[in-house]
Request: fold
Amino acid sequence: LNKLLGSGADAALYRIGKGIGASDCRHLAGRLPDVSPEQLVALGPISFALSGFANTTILDGSNPALDDSFVLFYEHPHSYEAESFKKKGVATSTTECFLVAGYSAGWAGEALGIDLHCREVSCIARGDDKCLFVMSASSKLREVTKDFCAKNGLPSPF
Reply:
């Protein structure tokens, strides 16, 4: 994909992931019509893990609200994207879990009817200890990410 799209590959993977996440959420919501938006969001990490993307650990400070104050800090242990780089012995200078970041934002955004976006701030493919993510309303992502990084001693991607 990098050979075809160059620097646009990461954005393409993110958008593909976001579309898949939203589609998977709609599919499950259609099969479970009595499930609330909160329950649908909670089912996201289960679907995500069963699909083989990664496990999800929600971190302290998250606020899974039903409006644009929604904020989620989480780790994806064993993200298949990062693990594939690690398995090949390839170290990168950037975070690499674009598809899983998009999937999570697509699922949660679809469940809640909010335009959510996600940013990976730490990635094992880059040599970090964990794959950590920040998700919030797109209008707040930059500010929320900078605050999270500052509180956790991480370099801000912005």
